[in-house]
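Hey all, quick one. A colleague (J.T.) asked me to put the 6-O-phosphono-beta-D-glucopyranose job into the tracker so the inputs and the structure tokens live in one place instead of scattered across chat threads. No bug as far as I know, just bookkeeping. Sequence used:
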Amino acid sequence: MKIENIIPYDLVIFGAKGDLSCRKLIPALYRLELQNLLHINTRIIGVGRADWNNNHYSSIVLQALKKFHSDSIDINIWNTFKNKLYFYNLDVTKIDNFIHLKYTLNQSKNTKIYYFAVPPNKFNNICEGLGKIQYNTQPNRIIVEKPIGVSLKSSQIINKQLNKYFHENQIFRIDHYLGKETILNLLTLRFANPIFHNIWNNTAIKYVKITVSETIGIENRWAYFDSIGQTKDMVQNHLLQILSLITMSVPKKLDAYHIRKQKIEVLKSLRKIDSKNIYTHTLRGQYSSGMINGNIVPSYIEENGAKKDSDMETFVLIKANIDNTTWSGVPFFLKTGKRMHTKKTEIVIYLKNIPNSIFMNHINNNYANKLRIILEPNEGIEIEFLNKKPDINNKYILKKSKLNFQYSDITKDKIADAYERLLFESMKNDQSLFVSKEEIETSWEWIDSIIHAWKTNKIKIQLYPSGTKGLYFSKKN
Ligand code: BG6
């Protein structure tokens, strides 16, 4: 965006004291400032239950930056940024007190962007409060964080509450994976390149693996995590979003309406997993103790505050099928877990071998071609293919080779962080990187059925040692 097109906003962060705000939002806003993408009249208004004045809030923000911004703080940039900071003490459950917030909001004509960095049980209070002071009107908008519910029913309740005060075009539901550069590149990769576009279907693709593995455990989030588990925390949102981006049909335009429409189509075509196929299509695991980066780490049930008999999954592997013409017969393996051997996010596409290939004996059961899209770490794309080994004695000794592309080859600039991009997109009023109500509810419907089948069939978790690759389906599957 051209600097002259940047307009000022009031960014009102509810939950300004919280972890999300300090760890993600403040560093992201500072990076926007660094790039001169925040208008001089932009105000960042932290709202929370603390007896702070603006100066005190500035010192908290500086501490957060020192801790969570990866580089040193530029003093000139900080001085400009600091002038944008305000703090407002408010208990959002006291609706009558919003009237005082109104005075602060009135001090500028800026469009308001409200960030709900609070648990969903506070969403309704904030909506009601903003409604009461009539600050919920267009073009003001809200950004809401996951989890948007823990089931279809609870997500519908939350969406209803939001819709009572805000129109859909004012609601920006964040899935931070959609702000990652490499996720965004999936559309370019698929729809700008015939080399990929023309093979992107079940005639060429055998199966696909989407892996999001983390080495961290639950990081003192026991109460939250144990009430939700890995499937609701990661699959319902991040993995299903990745799946929908790699399988959706080409949208008519690259705008929110058309992209979301195609994503919903694939989400609706996901084959239901219920008691009939729960044993063959899912595995749920929980980490036991083990070694990560040379350190011994405790098991899930030995974590701080743990319930010793918890049956919650920290790992899940799901074999998903999309019942449409393009993807029929192609399994998609969705795998995600905590305390695994490495932190990585990748999509691997395995291509079918050439039928009756004259090289069949050389390939055995392996796949000749594999496309690896690496989202993290070292963002890049890798193509694996077979090559003749140069040798005068043997005409056809085949060897696997790799074509390797890394983002670092084309830019020395830092790749924008997900929150930085998404905050900026919300200022541009572009919803295409945000999740629609229908996508969220359709995803929950699919997940609900899995969780229900686990419960009714009393499917127990299986333990996997920390620092490993988790669980695998047996070959029969
Ligand atoms: C969050 C989950 O949405 O994503 C966390 O709640 C998880 O449990 C995190 O650790 C992973 O995000 P990233 O960007 O580090 O892959």
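Adding what we noticed when we looked at it: The first strand starts at residue 9 and ends at 14. The pocket of 6-O-phosphono-beta-D-glucopyranose is lined by residues 214, 233, 345 (CB under 6 Å).
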